Structure formats: structure tokens, C-alpha cells
Amino acid sequence: MKGILDFARARRDGRPIGMVTSYDAWSARLAAQAGVDCLLVGDSVAMVVHGFADTLHATPEMMVAHTAAVRRGAPELFVVADMPFLTFRKGPETALDVAGALMRAGASAVKLEGVRGHERTVEQLVGSGIPVMGHLGLTPQSVHQLGGYRVQGRSAEDAARLLEDARTLQALGAFALVLECVPEQLATDATEALAIPTIGIGSGPRTSGQVLVLHDLLGLSDEFRPRFARRYLEGHALVRDALQRYVTDVREARFPAREEVLC
């Protein structure tokens, strides 16, 4: 995918969209070679790469640096960059500054969580030529307000609120919407109610596409195993074992071998 019209076309044609997170050039390059549709430079980088306990520690500077690296690795792909915590709650002026920096770093669009209280900011971003992807359901930046990482929209009232917010984001000009950890039927209802595509994560199979954290699908953590994230590789064990073999070879003088000596 190269632009937001490709998202609309995929939605119209019923072709599921495959999206993964990427935080650096090498993973972006591999994702492009694998045929991934688009990349998300998620604020999850604060947890996955920088070791923080939540996404609240992602800063504009952090997001800009990782976005630039991803763009260098995959110059041809559509890249969405997360707006960090509170940057879109300080009003349109601050949001435009941060979104502009992300776009200059190589983002094709920005993603922000929720909509209530920053409707004017979304409208201002879209009106300024910055494509906006919405994000509803479990919004990690609000984890403390939500009481933890839990499925959202279980009650009829909460489901109705989410559908209303989804319609609002569409009306404000969002080109797509991430639905994270909501019941399958609610994700289906939202997908059917909207003209824009929905990208699910932990929300069942009937959205317009799916997104996963790259490190989860590669199994690079032996501690965090979300039920909704299918592992396509036991990466943690593979990388650990390779490093152990390297250390053993060095300690037992098996590396470097004669053919690996330059001169």
C-alpha cells in the first residue's frame, strides 16, 4: 500500500489488510520483502525496545527517530506512526507540530487513540493534509483509566459508545480505524457500520484487516504471550540458542575458523 486510497480500495474489494509493527530499518526491510501491506511505528516501542512498563514513556523524539529508521528500511511501504501520550490532547497547535515532525521523518499517516475531547484536533490534522488513523477499544495510553489491559465494549452501553466514536472518527476524516481488544460481534458491527476499513487486534477475524506487534508474532519474548497473538516463530529460543553457540565457539577457540580470517 502506498496511500490512503489503497486502504479504501481494499475495503471496497474485501481484501484483508496485513499490518505489523516495526521500529527499525532491518525489520521494516524484512516486512516489505514478506509482502506486508503497511507498517505501524507503534508507541509500543517504549515497551518492546526501550524496556518501559507501558507506552506512556514514548516521546515525540523517540517516535521520530524510529519512524525515520523504518522509512529508510522500507521506502516503498505505507508507514503509520503513533502520536505519543498527551501530544494530541494539548490542542491542535501542539498536535500539528508533533504530527508534522513524524511526517517529515517519513510517516505516511499518524494514529491517535480515542476521539472524545480532541475532535477538533483530528479535524485540524486531516484538514492540514495529515492522514489520520483512529484507535478505539483498548487504548494503551489510557491503561490506568481503563483499570488495566482488558477487553473493552462488553456492555451494551460501552458498545454503543464505541460505535458512536467510530462514526465520529469517520465523519472527522479518519481513513481507517484500529479496534483493539473488543468483542468479536462489536468489531463486526463497527466494520459493517463504517465505510472506512477497520484493523483488528484481539478483536476477532471479521475486521477489514489485522495488526500484530512484530515481536509477538516472532515469539521474541518468553514472558509476554497474549492469547490473540499467534506465534509464527519461537524467536526467543532460536536467538538465545544462536548466541549460546557463538559464546561457546569463542570460548573453545572454534571461532573464527581459518576460512573466516581476512588476512
| CATH class category label of the largest domain | Alpha Beta
Q: The CATH topology of the largest domain, please? A: TIM Barrel
Q: Mind describing the biggest β-sheet?
A: 8 strands, parallel, barrel
Shape estimate = globular
Instruction: Please count the helical segments.
Output: 11
Count of β-strands? 8
Q: Taking strands numbered 1, 2, ... along the chain, how are they ordered across the largest sheet?
A: 1-2-3-4-5-6-7-8
Taken as a percent bin, the fraction of beta residues is: 5-15%
Secondary-structure arrangement, i.e. CATH architecture of the largest domain: Alpha-Beta Barrel
Number of domains: 2
Structural class from helices and strands?
alpha/beta
CA-atom Rg in angstroms: 20 Å
CATH H-level superfamily of the largest domain: Phosphoenolpyruvate-binding domains
Global mean pLDDT? 96
Task: Please provide a written account of the structure.
With 263 residues, the chain is α/β, with parallel strands linked by helices. The protein has two domains: 4-232, Phosphoenolpyruvate-binding domains (TIM Barrel); 235-263, no CATH class. Helix content is 43%, strand content 14%. It has eleven helices and eight strands. The chain has helices at residues 4-13, 25-34, 45-48, 60-73, 92-105, 119-127, 143-146, 156-172, 184-193, 214-217, 235-251, and strands spanning 17-21, 38-41, 78-82, 109-111, 132-137, 176-180, 198-201, 209-212. Helix 5 (92-105) crosses helix 6 (119-127). The radius of gyration is 20 Å and the shape is globular. The model has no long low-confidence stretch (mean pLDDT 96).
